[in-house]
């Protein structure tokens, strides 16, 4: 069998590696439009401050290493169209401009997503996005060559917050622009307030309801008329699935996203899709669609696809819980389950609890706040979110595991946490949420 993979990283490269372990003879060819194909893109912001001390630590494997494994990788090669009737892709060599066709028996589509950019600044020499390793290299080079002292970060999503934190820790002055009045809008407004406090505490200026309208050299004019210094601009304003090249095919798409089934298959029986460009559903609320642009879902689906390619249909994709967590200086915010928008037509109660992450008499005890949204009929936890300095990840892991295994809010009172005063309380915050929810229901 000949397997062609469009795109690397957590989706495509993980399928390639997993499948090679299961099948040592099939041909595997990978095309990626970028210069690097296997690296930790989630870790990119942390090199800006040298929290990740060596750039090489971010590189998982090189094309040469993958070749030894029996995976033929072509970087800076962009697939520009797919012919699913005759089973071939058309590829453009971005270094030479040459185009050619390559046939496949099975095709993996892992194109990722394109970072959105604002017209007023996107062509400026100091304006960058941060998605790939070569983007990091360009940002590093620009900061060094221009002795940058101040940066403007546009957007307060995952990447915008991580980048602003890391540039601040590097010693740069940072201004953050947000087009509306909501910081990190995937989280509840009350949980975004401590993020703003961390900005103030660390000298980061937040400008809400502001968008760039004109850039003249390093002077950036906002829609309010204010002019700010913009030696460096990082745009972090969301992503769009990179799927235009599939318009030549019969692959079904929904607003640019590719729906997949329990094996990662598209509507075409020999074409799979994975990564930021796919549409799937929530595991605990299957009728609701979701797309999750994180490494965890890609790694899990890659295992399922690789096994299915190897004719093992034992493992199936049953949806996602969209679990995420973000550290911002001294606080962590996170959530699992439905988005705030997806909650709108659900019938639920809200239960909240704030208490210390461990016994209050222990040194270093820190407040931890959690909020759960419980379906009135099924008693499932539709969504959980929270904020705290320590221990949030542990509680979100408990809630997501319980939910994935079909548990309800009633089970929370019986959750046995690893208790000792330095770690938790006899009635942990997840237990207390259970008691409160049962009473309220």
Structure commentary:
The protein is of the alpha/beta class and 441 residues long. Helix content is 23%, strand content 28%. The chain has nine helices and 26 strands. The protein has helices spanning 9-22, 45-48, 63-68, 133-145, 158-170, 189-201, 295-309, 392-404, 429-440; strands at 2-6, 27-32, 71-75, 77-83, 88-93, 99-103, 106-109, 113-115, 127-128, 150-154, 173-177, 205-207, 212-216, 219-222, 227-229, 232-235, 239-241, 258-259, 271-273, 278-281, 289-290, 324-328, 331-337, 348-356, 367-375, 381-388. The strands form seven sheets. Strands 3-2-1-7-19 form a five-stranded parallel beta sheet. The chain has a five-stranded parallel beta sheet with strand order 9-16-10-11-12. Strands 22-23-26-25-24 form a five-stranded antiparallel beta sheet, with helices on both faces. A hairpin with a 5-residue loop joins strand 25 and strand 26. The radius of gyration is 23 Å and the shape is globular.
**Number of H/I helices:** 9
Radius of gyration: 23 Å
Helix content: 10-25%
Share of β-strand residues:
25-35%
Give unreliable regions as ranges.
none
Largest sheet: 5 strands, parallel
Number of strands: 26
| Mean pLDDT figure | 97
Shape designation:
globular
The helix/strand class is: alpha/beta
Termini separation comes to: 55 Å
Main sheet: which strands, in order across?
Answer: 3-2-1-7-19
Quick rundown:
This protein is an alpha/beta fold and 441 residues long.
């Amino acid at each position: 069998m000949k397997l062609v993979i469009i795109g690397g990283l957590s989706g495509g490269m993980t399928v390639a590696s997993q499948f090679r372990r299961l099948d040592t003879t099939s041909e595997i060819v990978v095309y990626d439009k970028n210069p690097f194909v296997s690296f930790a893109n989630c870790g990119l912001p942390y090199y800006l401050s040298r929290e990740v001390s060596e750039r090489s630590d971010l590189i998982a494997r090189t094309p040469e290493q993958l070749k030894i494994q029996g995976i033929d990788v072509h970087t800076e090669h962009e697939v520009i169209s797919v012919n699913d009737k005759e089973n071939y892709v058309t590829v453009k060599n971005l270094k030479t401009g040459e185009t050619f066709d390559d046939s496949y028996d099975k095709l993996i589509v892992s194109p990722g997503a394109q970072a959105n950019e604002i017209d007023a600044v996107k062509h400026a020499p100091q304006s960058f996005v941060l998605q790939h390793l070569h983007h990091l290299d360009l940002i590093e080079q620009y900061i060094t060559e221009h002795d940058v002292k101040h940066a403007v970060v546009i957007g307060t999503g995952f990447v915008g917050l991580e980048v602003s934190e890391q540039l601040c820790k590097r010693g740069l002055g940072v201004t953050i622009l947000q087009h509306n009045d909501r910081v990190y809008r995937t989280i509840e407004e009350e949980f975004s307030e401590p993020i703003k406090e961390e900005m103030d505490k660390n000298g980061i200026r937040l400008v809400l309801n502001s968008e760039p309208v004109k850039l003249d050299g390093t002077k950036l004019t906002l829609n309010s008329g204010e002019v700010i210094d913009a030696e460096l601009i990082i745009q972090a304003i969301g992503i769009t699935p990179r799927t235009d090249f599939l318009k030549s095919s019969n692959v079904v798409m929904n607003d640019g996203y590719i729906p997949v089934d329990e094996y990662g298959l598209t509507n075409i029986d020999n074409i799979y899709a994975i990564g930021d460009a796919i549409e799937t559903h929530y595991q605990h609320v299957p009728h609701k669609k979701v797309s999750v642009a994180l490494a965890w879902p890609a790694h899990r689906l890659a295992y399922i696809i690789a096994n299915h390619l190897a004719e093992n249909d034992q493992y199936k994709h049953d949806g996602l819980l969209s679990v995420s967590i973000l550290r911002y200086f001294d606080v962590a915010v996170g959530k699992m389950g439905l988005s705030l928008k997806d909650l709108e037509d659900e019938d639920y109660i809200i239960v909240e609890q704030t208490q210390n992450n461990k016994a209050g008499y222990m040194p270093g005890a820190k407040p931890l706040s959690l909020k759960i949204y419980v379906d009135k009929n099924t008693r499932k936890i539709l969504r959980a979110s929270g904020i705290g300095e320590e221990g949030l990840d542990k509680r979100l892991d408990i809630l997501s595991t319980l939910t994935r295994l079909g548990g309800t809010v009633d089970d929370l009172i019986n959750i046995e946490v690893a208790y000792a005063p330095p770690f938790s309380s006899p009635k942990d915050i997840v237990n207390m949420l259970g008691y409160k929810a049962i009473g309220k229901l």
